[in-house]
Design goal:
The complex is a heterodimer of chains A (203) and B (328).
Chain A: E1 2-6, E2 10-15, E3 18-23, H1 31-54, E4 62-65, E5 71-75, H2 82-85, H3 91-110, E6 113-114, E7 123-126, E8 129-132, E9 139-140, H4 144-161, H5 166-180, H6 184-197
Antiparallel strand pairs in A: 1-2, 2-3, 3-5, 4-5, 6-9, 7-8
Chain B: E1 5-10, E2 15-22, E3 27-34, H1 43-65, E4 74-80, H2 84-101, E5 105-109, H3 110-121, E6 128-132, E7 137-143, E8 146-152, H4 158-168, H5 175-183, E9 195-196, E10 199-200, H6 203-214, H7 220-246, E11 250-254, H8 261-274, E12 277-279, H9 290-302
Parallel strand pairs in B: 1-4, 4-5, 6-11, 11-12
Antiparallel strand pairs in B: 1-2, 2-3, 6-7, 7-8, 9-10
The chains are: A alpha+beta (203), B alpha/beta (328).
Chain lengths: 203, 328
Amino acid sequence: MRLIGRGAEANLYLEGEEVVKERIPKNYRVPELDRMLRTTRTRREARLLSAARRAGVPTPVVYDVDNPGTTLRMAHVPGPQVKKEIDSMGSKERKNLFRRIGELAGRLHRAHIIHGDLTTSNMIHSGKRIFFIDFGLGEISEAVEAKGTDLLVFKKSLRSTHHEHEDECLEAFMEGYREAYPGAGPVLERLAEIEKRGRYFVR
Amino acid sequence: MEKVICLGIEATAEKLGIGILDSEGNILANRTKHQPLKGGIHPREAAQHHAENLRPLLDLALQDAGLAMGDIELIAFSRGPGMGPCLRVAAVAARTLSLKHGIPLVGVNHCIGHIEIGRLKTEAKDPLTLYVSGGNTQVIAFEGGRYRVFGETLDIAIGNCIDQFARNLDLGAPGGPVVERLARKGSYVPLPYTVKGMDLSFSGLLTAATGAARTEGNRIEDVCFSLQETAFAMITEVTERALAHTEKEEVLMAGGVAVNSRLQEMVRTMARERGAGFFVPPGDVLGDNGAMIAWTGILMHRSGITHRLEETRVEQRYRTDQVEVTWR
């Protein structure tokens, strides 16, 4: 097993063609809360990865969840994080990419899958396909509120991480999202509402 | 570089602050006075308090510094975010003093003030800032010429959550220290944990904690303990996420809630385990204060910024990332 990544909550190991994702204990939080978060997120992630694939969104195939449920074993998806590619792309290529990301997000929401942490760090460009990963904060929900919040997380990550291309990327994303998801209208209205509810917003 | 002496006026919420700094970063005076709290903050009453106390507090600050108004070379004030009536008291005072004494004026973003005084008073160079207070909860980092918000609350601030909980249960105000004290004798009961990407939500937690505390058979100490453990774990988690995401190597704490020793302990533990530096500014510049506004004013002015009167309108929802950072 070779350590290939250290995220905020998990270590990633490569073992042959498989990735082992281990949610590590955090000493800053009480043990009861720590165990609860690690196990529920790991199990939820396994379920949502499979559900997303059935909804037409590429995700790594899940092989196993250990007992008590803090380690996930899945297929290795080679390729760069979308986050790392954006600045080196041409404008047209970038728009196409975000249109496709929007379509994939639309497919998730059409199937009532909330990702929970939609950012370009959690998307892998592998060959011609874009894989969505890291569903640990996700849930199954038909609620417009949950879908609107999901989009807000994405929108804000563009603002903080890809500020130079924020408007262009968001516009392309929304185009793809609307096309893939017939229920997009009310979700986008709710998104605007949630933003206004926040502590800070411009205009 | 020529030495400049700056007067900073802070009034975004219940606290009024007057600070005087020189451009070498020496705090010559830093006075605060807050409206006595019974319930929550009433914006108009707080503003009234500030208007009545501004002149005497200014005189005390000048006395502390051994200066007269004629020695002040720059005036800075909080333009926002904050409560409109309070902000306007500081703005009107700053404009009046500026006109009367012919002193240049700079409007400062309150949140950025917290970051800059932290950078001045600790060893932190380019930190990820965790700003937690009664009215604000943000995780901020400098990126591409601005202070960008990587995580923030989607509804109420952490300080507001704890204060409101304490008020709901008549534990006394301000709620933070009371809840912290009670929590020392508590143990864990499950409460809702809500993290959305790098953002947070506290309103569901507040409702659930209030309900749990009112449920017969539950100990108030346990609910206080769990409220702190849950809310602070959420905050620490998004801070860690933002740290991994931005690849910053330092964490700086800011804001009134940053005095909480349990929160400090949790963030410190997280930072250590990630190999990141951990910094907490001294208590007198941690909560809202005038010194942070004066210092940020000096930095802005030094980079060529002076605001004309018509540019000093207050902004209740002034976003941290609205400000172009010309001084870094």
